[in-house]
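Table 4 source record.
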Amino acid sequence: MSEYKTLFGKAVKALASDPTDAGAEGQIWYNTTDGAFKTVLNVGSWSSGGNMGTARILLAGAGTQTAALGFGGYQPPSPGGKNATEEYDGSAWTAGGNLGSTRYELGGAGYQTSGLAFGGEAPPGPNVAATEEYDGSSWTAGGNMGDGRRSVRGAGTQTAALAFGGNPGPSSTNATEEYNGSAWTTGGVLSESKQGMGGAGIQTAALGFGGKSPGISPTISATESYNGSAWTTVNPLNTARADIGGSGATDTAALAFGGEPATATNSTESWDGTNWTTQSNSLATARKQFGSANFGPNTSSLAFGGTPGPLTGTNATEEWNKSIFSPIAATWASGGNLNTAVNLGTTFGTQTATVQTGGGPPFTGATEEYDGSTWTTSPGSLNTPRGQVLASSGVLTAGLAFGGGTPSDSNATEEYDGSTWTTTGNMNLGRRYISGFGIQTATIAAGGFTSPPAANRNNSEEYNGSTWTAGPTINNARNGLSGTGTTSAGLIFAGSPQTLNGGFTEEWNGTAWSEQNDMSVKRSQVGRAGTQTDALVAGGNQNPPYSAATEGYDGTSWSTRPSMTTARATSGDGTATAAIVAGGSTPAATNATEEFTGETFVLDYKTITTS
């Protein structure tokens, strides 16, 4: 009998602990501690992506996971359709050019910069045959389909597309049409009439799976393969379903997910060219009538929008990735409570070496330090007790606190050395609900509120370790904002322009402020962490209610993260993958601490057993 090393090129090793790097793929080892043979599996899993701007159902999709396109559909409970287009960059959705015609239950094909939309229903009817081509910014009319139909599915590219199945009315069709970039021609027919199928592949090597034929049959598990002229029945899905998501750049490596066998499902299946295999990890949100990035590989897909139940559209996005690494979802966990409940104070440092100081009214200078599990009262208190969101920067042994309310607007600045506070140069403009970022000897202060007269401020100042110098104004005057970064690469976000919360985001490059994409959840008095290109925002005040929402910033756009346990206005610091928030208002003052751990990936081990 051949040895394992001869067959696979790797010897079976004896190891005291499991390996942690990608070199373990294809390796079998004996864990001498566990007394078991192990290997690493290539597995797939879904994780949360950035939310769409508009929740909708019956939309179409195109492109890949990191360059997707979502268009059309409608937003329950309104019966009117949508012509909106959104583009996904792998983390966040942004608005694209609108379709020329409003419609839903349409088909899609191609890429983000060369997409194709065809068919559908124009509310409140009839079915349409119109085709539109997308160039990355706008849609233009293409050649009409031979038959106007809704619930049609597609595959291929903008210049070599396939449309199959659907409902031209009053029932389903088995018709196929091929598009050459300007006109549609008739192709081979499906083995049976159906609509709401999943699709994958290219015009000459496509796959159609699932679907339904209302009034004739329930949901269908059948899979058919197209060779450019004819459809051939191949092995069926394990779960019959319709209004299903599909992706795959070839007909030998596809993915089927979601849909409705009776109610919405989260089941995922992978196609290897012969058989469908049910995956161990399913969509987090069971859904149907959603969009998918149908031209990506079956190892990297995208599901967006749709409905988890009757007429309840969602804007949620999920990303599918198949790898030897298995994700451990990001999460918030409770930390040690502050000794004193406090609101409207400030927090700085890291997750395991944190300072919380100030707060009120009633105004306080009390300071506490956190070691990653327990808060202890510092011997040093602020020389000027204050709250109403003073700002801070730095680390536990070299921090800075400035501004706030006493209750009058304060311009006081104090430095912290890990045990005592020392008064230093005053700010040029005293203000409360201010933001700040940087280190003790190089800090930026921005925005805030002064009274009287009541006014949001657009002022910014820079601290050099002893004095403050006035800087350029920010673009959106506001209070209750927050910030992170350095004096050469900073970020401010959130805040309240008078009575309305904003999701405003601005970047600082050392000389000027520039507006960026807004946060998804508009709020003020938030916790902050991270850097200009990898930031985190958590909690906040929406005047009211209070928010538990968390978002991450990648240097371009914001995308959702798991929510905090306690909705509150709060303060925080740390990194985007290891953050902390402490205290705040619910609206009552709280002493709760929460710690954030970002998504991580670990090798997916498999213990080998005999059977």
